[in-house]
Specification:
With 653 residues, the chain is an alpha+beta fold. It contains 11 helices and 35 strands.
């Protein structure tokens, strides 16, 4: 995780006692889903200039640069092209020159897709050239913006990715824009690791269906494989995190576990023996979430773990001191360093709280002064709601960490509650700004987010306790959390609804069947409903036999075996539990969902209809599995809120 690219992680921790002033006026839904005021920003390596893409006076986006010292006015370098081009990213590549990402929407085979290119220019917008334009066969790439290295010892060039039947690596001139291929990947290659001297040292190959990743090291006789693993095995990772990196001495640093360790950490890795060796960072109680990479040298310089919020640990004492100083100044939220100057005299950092998406600040280490330079969502000037951390014991004694967002009214007693289990299921919730949660809280609902067993980040035993327990232990944990809310007086027993997406949708339906006395309504968005069908469908779509075997192995371990445990899988499938559901059900599913296909909700609707249950079925025309379309997200927020209000006598959208 690069220091300069933490904008998408916008997460935060609050102590349970934090209380913000309530806001009685009901804000409109557009306040929660409006685009960020700031799209991107960066600090130049010498710490003298800033660049930012932010909204202009007419809701368009502008690229501005300015010199921090000397009182120079901000300079508008580029404006959004109203003919369909958008400024989407900016980064400094040296002290005088920056690259800007420009995106436009193109029609390809009847589908609208974003096409992104990079332009290099001086700080004032002069001498602009488009990067990689000289290679015609690359122009079919929708995205030519992936950086591999800014080559700190070669200010005239950068290394970038391009796809020509395989992902390849190109050396690109920042003054002419011309590119030349320097590495050719395999069918599965998706990334290389470059050291601080610009030498390509590691290659990563990944098979997305089986989730198997292989890591290769560059040796005297070519590329040699040094590691093989499946993503998601007991660690909280994402497709953008690689598990092996380099420190300043080119030692290999492994993100994972050693010899059955309970918690994931960072270790040195021996490429000759292909073994994990010395643990260099870890925290009892929590898995390491990611390694931190320096934006200029590309060294692994620290690690991130999550308790109730992300915690940043740097190996460099100076960086760690800066992190500690800033966290002491902003005690109630997340503080993340976005970029730093070479001399560490200036630091661009971000803060965030659950009721505000974030603000950007500049810290002058010499004068120890902090200046706010931007707000990602100025419409959230005042807090909407407060968040409490709630730990509880399950039926069989396991401790569950959960979060309760209380309504804007400030009330804590006998509330209507939306239970909001996370997807995955092998992911987790933590204190974060979530527009859906905040919207519901603004309408008077408490929102409950439990990290049931199977959630990742709390150690391998906690995660594996959820294996083959999709519809049993995981559901029991959520139900006990609901009973805890009632016992503590937070929840009105007669006004509790469960709403979730993906596995969360599955959980909503299964809770309704297994604990009908607790659930007044249930809404599933892009939820899976038939476990055997899920396994069969994924395996059938897998073409290579080796990948089929890998995928089946994963399902056998985490969900259950079709061959030996089909009855268990059927017993845990909501589509077979329709007769037991008493609460009204809302099903919403994107027709273009490429993860959990639309058929899951169609089958659930048929089963509920046949059982003569109350069911509403609303297909979504776009958005995919992650609802990556503001129209789809807005419709989900409106429909779920209206549905919950109807059945718990609550407030609608």
């Amino acid at each position: 995780m690069k220091l300069a690219r933490l904008l998408t992680v916008m997460v935060v921790g609050l102590v349970s006692a934090l209380v913000g002033p309530s806001v009685l006026a009901k804000p409109g839904i557009d306040k929660f889903i409006s685009p960020s005021h700031i799209r991107d920003l960066d600090l130049s390596p010498d710490g003298k200039r800033l660049a930012m893409i932010r909204k202009g006076p007419h809701e368009d986006y502008l690229l501005t640069t300015w010199t921090i010292d000397g009182g120079a006015d901000q300079l508008t370098v580029l404006e959004q092209d109203h003919r369909g081009s958008y400024l989407t990213g900016v980064r400094w590549v040296d002290d005088e020159r920056l690259v800007v990402t420009i995106t436009h929407i193109a029609e390809v085979d009847g589908h609208a897709i974003p096409v992104s290119r990079m332009t290099a220019m001086d700080a004032d917008g002069g001498n602009a050239v488009r990067l990689m334009a000289n290679i015609e066969r690359l122009q079919s790439n929708p995205n030519l913006t992936r950086f591999a290295s800014n080559l700190p010892f070669d200010p005239d060039h950068v290394l970038m990715y391009g796809f020509e039947s395989t992902w390849n690596l190109y050396k690109v001139n920042l003054h002419s824009g011309a590119a030349k291929r320097v590495e050719r990947g395999t069918k599965w290659t998706y990334r290389w690791r470059v050291n601080r001297h610009g030498e390509v040292k590691l290659r990563y190959d990944y098979r997305p269906v089986s989730r198997v990743e292989k890591v290769y090291v560059q040796g005297d006789e070519g590329w040699e494989r040094i590691a093989r693993f499946r993503r998601g095995e007991g660690t909280y990772d994402s497709s953008f995190l690689s598990k092996i990196g380099l420190n300043k001495d080119d030692d290999l640093i492994m993100f994972g576990r050693k010899n059955g360790d309970e918690y994931a950490g960072l270790y040195t890795f021996n490429p000759e023996s292909q073994e994990i060796e010395k643990r260099i960072f870890g925290v009892d109680g929590y898995d390491v979430f990611a390694a931190i990479e320096h934006p200029y040298t590309h060294d692994v310089v620290g690690a991130v773990y999550i308790d109730d919020r992300p915690r940043y640990h740097f190996f460099d004492d100076r960086l760690q001191a800066i992190q500690g100083f800033l966290e002491n100044k902003f005690r109630h939220g997340r503080v993340s360093i976005a970029s730093v100057s070479r001399r560490l005299d200036r630091v661009l950092f971000l803060t965030q709280e659950p009721w505000r998406p974030g603000r950007a600040y500049l810290y002058n280490r010499n004068t120890r002064t902090i200046e706010q330079i931007g707000d990602f969502a100025p419409q959230f000037e005042k807090p909407i709601s407060k968040v409490e951390i709630l730990s509880y014991k399950t039926f069989d004694g396991a401790e569950i960490r959960s979060y309760l967002t209380l309504p804007a009214s400030g009330s804590k007693r006998n509330l209507p509650v939306i239970v909001y289990p996370h997807g995955g299921p092998f992911t987790r919730d933590y204190l974060a700004f979530d527009p859906i949660v905040q919207f519901w809280a603004s309408r008077g609902y408490a929102v409950f987010q439990p990290n049931f067993r199977g959630s990742s980040g709390f150690g391998v035993s906690f995660e594996k306790a959820g294996y083959k327990q999709y519809g049993e232990r995981m559901i029991d944990d959520i139900a006990h959390g609901m009973r805890t809310l009632i016992a503590k007086g937070y929840a009105d027993r007669e006004r509790m609804c469960v709403v979730g997406a993906s596995y969360g949708g599955y959980a909503a339906l299964t809770l309704s069947a297994r604990y009908p006395e607790l659930v007044q309504c249930a809404a599933s968005i892009n939820g899976l409903t038939d476990l055997p069908y899920r396994i069969e469908r994924v395996v059938d779509l897998t073409k290579r036999s080796g990948e089929k075997e890998d995928r089946l192995e994963y399902f056998n371990e985490t969900m259950g075996s079709l061959e030996d445990e089909r009855r268990m899988l059927e017993r845990q499938s909501p589509v077979n539990l329709a007769n037991r559901i008493q609460a009204p059900v809302l099903l919403m599913h994107a027709t273009d969902d490429q993860n959990v296909d639309f058929e899951h909700s169609a089958r659930m609707r048929a089963a509920l209809t046949e059982a003569e249950k109350s069911v509403s079925f609303l297909p979504l025309e776009s958005g995919g599995h992650g609802l990556n379309d503001v129209r789809a997200l807005k419709r989900v927020m409106i429909e779920t809120t209206s549905f919950v209000a109807e059945h718990v006598d609550g407030e609608g959208p």
